[in-house]
Design a protein that fits this description.
With 1218 residues, the protein is an alpha/beta fold. It is built from 43 helices and 35 strands. It is globular.
Length: 1218
């Protein structure tokens, strides 16, 4: 079918030619007579309609029936394969290549996992790469996704070929403009790495919730199922939108496709020279787009306000365009097939031609379904899978044409959840199509899978088919889930072990690494090296835990001579690399190993006894059953000897090539060194040579660890069922820690059933206390002789892992032998009986060395972790038993603040993080009454990634109440919290006055209330008065007990109200916390509005001068000239002076700009004054970040902070004091 060519031929008589810029102007010329008109093919005829013709035929030039006709069931002849470039790419890069090639303008904003697409086009524009039109793309970062959508709409209105990249909440922010763009029939492609939406919790991982939320906007929607398809269908989308004048959302699964690196016979990259002729054919369409542009030379009006008389007709007038899109998209697919050799259809069917059981799905999940189809077909089963590529406009004709007529039982899988609906979106569309076409089937059911990147494997796909093939049709489960254990509503399907579905000769590998140790980067290089070999294919996928740095990374790699289409995690590895020795004893690292596989552990162990000593029971069971080939390599020692510090990646990579057998070592090592040159060449020859030395020394230190003959016969077997079992019904925080938190920390969250989770996403405080990551290579040792007891070490510690201790002589009687103390200095008689000590938590320290460098007395020495763990672990446990002595000190001083219990501890922040010390200090000053509204970003990830909750409580059970709404609305969210609290406390105040006026309660209660009322809004004074009121309420029972005479009804009601709202007697301290990306950019309008209201809220901006959470992109806070992502050529505009702007606008706002390492006392005073200020306050806190790339490491970030990366101006200005 030549629908695309036919559609183009209807655009006018302009001949298609080379797409040079000058030619575009010529192409517009024949259309000048009809300035601003719709494309010619959709224009009304200028002559009267001939007699006999019906009004609905006025758009006949479109020939919608011909264009949208379903394809013949006969397969077209396979297109000839074309010679193309090949290379290992991930889905983001594959998509960005096409978008850059065929677009003039891109507006970008960072959001995971779509950010890399914006980074790619920004880098290419900075490199002056030319697109197919011979131009460099204009790339602009906006302040939010809403801003992106507005700018995109404007660029399209100006006639530009514009595009963008987004997902999740970012896509939702674009919805208003998406309606406008579709309504105005503007050609555009929006590329989406589909991601979950934030509901009960934030998830940055992939599913289809976001794209399903925009299915009603009028955009066409094209789904890619693999990395290869992401590239090919991106081009299809750009061609089809130009041909059809309907905008298109091109989406693929976030992370699973966006971040998977796949060679797949290598990703066959479509060269610009192959794309150019396809765009040349669309020259009339591009000319029509230009002709419709806003231009005073041929003006028109759009975006009018319409009344009931014409609004509906105007909507219906666009019907021909949308009806034509299925045929136009298919024609574009055919055009792309002609140059690539890869044929796609709107609905692609794979399976038995007379299949009776068919599953319908879209996204990366179709590949496990295809694997299941191949497996079942080998058993003689008549099954198939129907893959959806065009989701909007929905074409029932194409669906029915592709679905085998023999299909009797159909299952539709959705990667989304739509509460309250009759079925998920794809199920509803398929069901409606069958019903309206009177296509009889025995049963159609729906199921959900893969939410939040939940793995979907061939075993799960087989379970879907098993459900569909049950003998009794009434037993087929509908509205099911697969991949989880639902023991609440019992929706889940059981599934068995994984079948062998990969091509023969495929090698599977798992690498357990730590964030920032270089494992992921080294594995990406390994994939490129292996994939570059003729006849070799590769696939790589990387999973991460929630910690910013120092967290767990698991690399899933596959290599082999055949194409690898396996978008699920490795679970039968031939090779497992454990790049951190602590993981061997902490995680079930052998769960994914096949019998007889190879295991390499980064550890100094030389004998099996050494290895066995660190084995937990579960690992012993696996070693006994699997009998792996064990090797150890002290990669840390090799890296240190080579001068590489903790980066063991190249050491372990060399050993991988030696042990895995994937490549011959004589070929692998030279290629590995070549990749080192490419990766580190810019850092100088010295760095390159250090990495060379690490590679050369690796094999010298490799030690084989034979498993003794007969070992393991007496090892207690831990059954798989027992491992998967999860206790439910947590009644206490302690039970929750054991039943939920600990399995999640052990990377076994997939085994947890539904019943252990609280609806609404609530998590208890202080769960990080059991995490004990033990990631530090060196830990500070305290030298009491040098210490002046200034507490600066604790003040600067990002993780609250080093703290001052005070103890009386009698409390030290049972202390461990190493718990040495000295008399406390200063404080007068009140402190005379106390001893002082600086105590470190060796398993919570991250080894950043900030405290070592900050200590003015050289009282701390970095010491190897092994020695410190043994010596300090019992000391820390003893320290925790000592009472807090914070009441003896002024918390509004540097020294005194650190004697207060930190209510933020052991967060998932990077080692040396510059943000957490500020927030930790806040909790030490105001934590028992803090309410925190936290913007999405670094601080919400290190502060709120389940199950790790670093916000904890004091001995009275009080502590910060923390919540995250979204990225863009944090100021408004916190403002709403403040007004809600204020309204409730106003009611409490009114009740107190009624009690006093009516003489209710006891005289002691009324006296306490008289003391409370004048200080109720003073955080510094109200605590004592609030406590007195609570005690008096307890004495009178809350309802007038003990009175000589009965109270009035109003007095009794007020008394009861007081009794039920005692948690509001103390003044909550509302803090609105977020980074500069929020405060300076996406959330600035909200921040400005909240500050303008005069309400008593405190705003803390953690200013890293970039979007740290998404990888270091430019924000308005980035300094002039800074080279960051989205500003690859250097930022050309100065840093936004937020403090100055607010001071000039609102004289009553308290404003401070601080840098912790530049002036400790300034920070304490600023936070104290901000909280005490009766009105809004704004504290901008400069925070060094690992993304800054400080050459000496984060331990030396204080040097950077003292001057400020952007020249931080330190000041405090109280509102109204001018």
């Amino acid at each position: 079918m030549q629908a695309l060519s036919e559609a183009l031929s209807l655009r006018g008589n302009t001949r298609a030619g080379p797409l040079a810029r000058g030619y575009r102007q010529l192409a517009v010329a024949p259309l000048q007579r009809r300035r601003g008109a719709l494309p010619v093919r959709a224009a009304l005829p200028s002559e009267p309609a001939p007699q006999g013709r019906q009004p609905e035929q006025r758009g006949e030039r479109l020939q919608p029936k011909a264009v949208a006709a379903p394809p013949s069931r006969a397969s077209p002849p396979p297109p000839a394969a074309k010679a193309t470039k090949q290379g290992p790419l991930d889905g983001n890069e594959a998509t960005a290549r096409i978008a850059y090639a065929v677009s003039d303008v891109a507006f970008i904003y960072p959001i995971t996992p779509a950010t890399p697409m914006g980074e790619f086009v920004d880098q290419w524009a900075s490199d002056k790469r030319k697109n197919i039109y011979g131009n460099v793309m204009s790339v602009t970062e906006m302040e939010s996704e809403a801003g992106v959508a507005g700018a995109l709409h404007g660029a399209l209105a100006a006639g530009a070929l514009a595009t963008t990249f987004t997902c999740s909440q970012g896509l939702l922010l674009m919805i208003p403009n998406m309606y406008k763009i579709a309504g105005e029939l503007m050609p555009c492609v929006l590329h989406v790495s589909a991601r979950a939406l934030a509901g009960h919790a934030l998830s940055i991982f992939g599913d289809h919730q976001d794209v399903m939320a925009v299915r009603q906007t009028g955009w066409s929607m094209v789904s890619s199922h693999s990395v290869q398809e992401a590239q090919d269908l991106a081009l299809v989308a750009h061609l089809a939108t130009l041909a059809g004048s309907v905008p298109i959302v091109h989406f693929f699964d976030g992370f699973r496709t966006s971040h998977e690196i796949n060679k797949a016979s290598m990703i066959e990259m479509i060269d610009n020279e192959l794309i150019k002729p396809l765009l040349d054919e669309l020259a009339p369409a591009i000319a029509a787009h230009h002709a419709r542009a806003l231009n005073p030379s041929h003006p028109h009006q759009r975006g009018t306000a319409q009344g009931p008389d014409v609004y509906m007709q105007s909507i219906e007038a666009a019907n021909p365009f949308h009806k034509a899109m299925p045929g136009i998209v298919q024609a574009a697919m055919d055009k792309v097939a002609a140059v690539t050799g890869r044929q796609y259809r709107l609905f692609d069917y794979v399976g038995h031609p007379q299949a009776e059981h068919v599953v319908v799905a879209m996204g990366s999940g179709v590949q496990p379904l295809e694997a299941a189809v191949r497996h079942l077909s080998g058993e003689g089963k008549k099954v198939g899978v129907l893959k959806v590529h065009l989701f909007r406009p929905w074409s029932a004709e194409h669906l029915l044409a592709a679905l085998p007529a023999s299909a009797r039982r159909i299952c539709v899988l959705d990667r989304t959840k739509e509460h309250g609906s009759g079925g998920e979106p794809l199920l509803v569309d398929v069901s409606a199509s069958l019903q309206r076409a009177r296509r009889n089937v025995d049963v159609i059911v729906g199921g959900r899978y893969g939410l939040g990147s939940k793995d979907f494997t061939p075993a799960m796909a087989l379970a879907v088919y098993d459900n569909l093939m049950r003998p009794n049709i009434d037993d087929i489960q509908d509205s099911f889930t697969v991949g989880i254990v639902d023991d609440v509503t019992f929706s889940s399907l059981p599934y068995g072990g994984e079948p062998e579905v990969l091509p023969a000769g495929t090698t599977e590998c798992l690498f357990w690494g730590m964030g920032s140790d270089g494992t992921v980067g080294a594995n990406k290089e390994a994939v490129k090296i292996i994939a570059s070999q003729e006849g070799m294919n590769a696939q790589a996928y990387f999973s991460y835990d929630a910690h910013k740095s120092g967290g767990v990374t698991v690399s899933h790699l596959r290599f082999g001579p055949h194409s690898i289409a396996a978008p699920w995690l490795v679970d039968m590895a031939h090779y497992v690399g454990v790049h951190q020795a602590t993981y061997w004893s902490k995680f079930d690292v052998l769960a994914g190993l096949r019998p007889g596989g190879t295991v390499l552990i980064n550890a100094p162990w030389k004998t099996f006894e050494d290895v066995e000593a660190a084995m937990p029971a579960k690992t012993k069971t696996r070693v006994a059953a699997l009998r792996p080939k064990l090797y150890c390599l002290d990669a840390g020692a090799v890296a240190a000897e080579a001068g590489l510090g903790r980066r063991v990646n190249m050491v372990m990579q060399a050993a991988f090539f030696a042990l895995s057998g994937v490549m011959d070592m004589s070929e692998a090592i030279p290629l590995l060194k070549e990749s080192i040159k490419k990766a580190y060449g810019k850092k100088g020859e010295k760095v390159v040579n250090m990495n060379f030395a690490a590679v050369d020394k690796a094999l010298e230190h490799l030690v084989e660890i034979p498993i003794p003959q007969g070992w393991g016969k007496d090892v207690d077997r831990v059954g798989l069922g027992e491992q998967a079992a999860a206790r439910t019904g947590s009644r206490t925080a302690a039970e929750f820690l054991e039943n939920v938190v600990r399995p999640m920390l052990n990377m076994e969250g997939d085994k947890l059933p539904v019943s252990v989770f609280a609806p609404g996403g609530f998590f208890p405080p202080g769960t990080t206390v059991i995490e004990k990551r033990s990631i530090a290579s060196k830990i500070p040792a305290w030298n009491s002789a040098n210490c002046t007891q200034c507490n600066i070490c604790a003040f600067v510690c990002p993780h609250a892992a080093i703290r001052p201790a005070l103890a009386k002589a009698e409390e030290l009687a049972g202390a461990p032998g190493g718990f040495s103390t000295v008399p406390v200095r200063g404080g007068g008689p009140a402190l005379k009986e106390y001893q002082y000590r600086v105590q470190v938590s060796p398993m919570d320290c991250t080894g950043c060395e900030l405290c070592v460098h900050a200590c003015p007395d050289n009282a701390l020495t970095s010491t190897p972790a092994a020695a410190m763990l043994e010596a300090e672990a019992p000391n820390w446990d003893y320290f925790l038993q000592l009472p807090s002595r914070g009441e003896l000190f002024d918390k509004a001083t540097v020294r005194g603040s650190q004697f207060q219990q930190p209510l933020l501890e052991f967060s998932g922040a990077c080692e040396g993080c510059g943000e957490t010390p500020y927030v930790k200090l806040l909790t030490q000053m105001f934590g028992s009454r803090m309410v925190v509204a936290n913007a999405t970003g670094c601080s919400s990830i290190w502060g709120g990634s389940a199950p790790s909750n670093p916000w904890t409580i004091n001995a009275e059970g009080k502590g910060p109440a923390w919540a995250n709404s979204l990225f863009e609305d944090n100021a408004q969210f916190g403002f709403g919290i403040q007004l809600g609290i204020k309204q409730r406390r106003d009611a409490l105040t009114a009740a107190a006055r009624v009690v006093i006026q009516e003489g209710a309660g006891t005289p002691a209660l009324r006296a306490a209330l008289e003391e409370w009322l004048p200080v109720r809004d003073s955080g510094a004074l109200v605590a004592i008065a609030a406590k007195a009121v609570q005690e008096a309420l307890a004495e009178c029972g809350g309802r007038g007990a003990g009175l000589a005479a009965p109270t009035t009804a109003s007095g009794e009601g007020a008394l009861a109200f007081l009794q039920s709202n005692t948690d509001l007697l103390d003044k909550p301290s509302v803090w609105i916390v977020g980074g500069d990306g929020w405060a300076y950019d996406i959330g600035f309008a909200g921040l400005d509005h909240v500050l303008s209201t005069g309400e008593d809220v405190n705003i803390l901006v953690l200013d890293t001068e970039e979007y740290s959470n998404t990888g270091g992109q430019k924000s308005k806070s980035s300094p002039l000239g800074s080279v960051v992502k989205f500003a690859a050529g250097g930022k050309t505009r100065p840093k936004k002076e937020l403090a100055l702007a607010i001071m000039q606008c609102y004289p009553d706002v308290y404003v401070a700009s601080v840098s912790l390492d530049a002036n400790y006392n300034q920070v304490v005073k600023a936070l104290s004054e901000a909280e005490a200020h009766r009105g809004p306050s704004l504290v901008i806190a400069y925070a060094p970040c690992a993304m800054h790339g400080i050459a000496e490491g984060m331990g030396e970030s204080a040097k950077d902070a003292k001057v400020g990366r952007g020249g931080v101006q330190k000041h405090r200005l109280g509102g109204g004091c001018r």
